[in-house]
Amino acid sequence: MLALLSKPTSPAVDWPAVDSPAVDWDRLSRRILDQGAQACWVVDNDLVIVGVNPALCALLGRRTGELVGTRLLAHVAEDSRSVLERQAAIRGLTPHRSYDVTLIRADGTPLRTIFNDSRLDGEDGGALPGFCIFVTDITRHVEEEAQRARRVDQLADAVARMNRFLGQICQELKDPLSAILGATQMISSDVASPGPTDGASGQGTAHLGAYAALCSDAGRQMMRTIENLSLWSRLQLNQVPLDLRSYELGGLLQDVLEELAPRARARDILIVNRIVATPVLGDLSALSTVLKHLVENAVRFSPAGSMVMLSAAPVDGRVAVRVQDNGLGIPEDQQPHLFRIDPHHAAPGADGEVGSGLGLLICKALVDRMGGGIRVFSKPGGGTAVTVTLNQGQRTGL
């Protein structure tokens, strides 16, 4: 400030003498302090506030009379008081310091700040019993840094879960592919072996039939995984248009049950359908996909010889569709992960088949986009019930 107010000098220019009025430096300093945007207060050696400027009062939401005469520690958060006391103890050793302090506004809001603390010296060089502290509010910066750190952690977690998810998808494709390759190798071995003797052709044909069935099942499993992965990726990109109309849920469910009937019979599972004449508002393809995934999951996780129950009931002007199985249930620590890409928590089905959990993710995405909701109720040893809530459709009078 002194350099700005003094007359410039240069050896190449002969400046004429100018009569300058005397400057009242104390008054000028007070004006700069009072009119400046930098918050500042002055404290004595006992940390008692002896002066504040308007910017500091505005920062804390207090008046001058509420601050002057009070101890500085009264306006500091508890976790910062030890910092302030430690800095006060070393003021005689280091006249200029900068450190972080959390202040408390009049309304109780915490403020993250930086204290730039300087010792006040007298005109003769002697120290005055006071210290000037300029305060910089960094609350927004700290919050932005915290949000950035949280976003980085969330991104890292998402990448880790995605990597595990892709690993599980690869395994889901690898297992049936290995079965297909194994079956084709056995077929090649049978073809390369010497011709069958009399009466042995029927056995060879049976072998070929078993190999073909194995390849067919494995191929369907691979195709189902690929279709699910494709649908899920398109849902993430919002590339699945929905056409919401009224559909009769019983008719849609009948088509799904006919498709899944062979697998249910193979495992001796009885599917009881109590859903009749239940109109819902939804997309035809999305409804069929959701029903197929839920019933297929129930069959997969049900022990042989058990029963899967399908029901629907009106709830608060909506329709609650319930799929109940009698399987082993889902452990409580795994239930929060059911609608996340977290294959680490995927449980094997009754036949040992381990899924990626992609079916439930697809169901939730489709149900949400149809304006509904999905919940899972499960108890270890007591089976699992999945309830999908959909908007009620219009009845077509018959």
What topology emerges from the helices and strands here?
Elements: H1 2-5, H2 25-35, E1 39-43, E2 49-52, H3 54-60, H4 64-67, H5 78-89, E3 96-104, E4 110-121, E5 127-137, H6 139-192, H7 201-236, E6 245-248, H8 249-266, E7 270-273, E8 279-282, H9 284-300, E9 307-315, E10 318-324, H10 358-369, E11 373-378, E12 384-392
Parallel strand pairs: 7-9
Antiparallel strand pairs: 1-2, 1-5, 3-4, 4-5, 6-8, 8-12, 9-10, 10-12, 11-12
Helix pairs in contact: 6-7, 7-10, 8-9, 9-10
Descriptive notes:
- This protein has 398 residues and is α+β, with helices and mostly antiparallel strands.
- Helix content is 44%, strand content 21%.
- The protein is built from 10 helices and 12 strands.
- Strands 6, 7, 8, 9, 10, 11 and 12 form a 7-stranded mixed sheet that branches. Strands 2-1-5-4-3 form a 5-stranded antiparallel sheet, with helices on both faces.
- Strand 3 and strand 4 form a beta hairpin.
- Helix 7 crosses helix 10.
- The longest helix has 54 residues.
- The radius of gyration is 38 Å and the shape is elongated.
- 23% of the residues are buried.
- The N terminus is likely disordered.
Question: Could you give a short description of this structure?
Answer:
The protein has 398 residues and is of the alpha+beta class.
Features of the shown structure:
disordered N terminus; 7-stranded mixed β-sheet; elongated; alpha+beta; 398 residues; 12 strands; 5-stranded antiparallel β-sheet
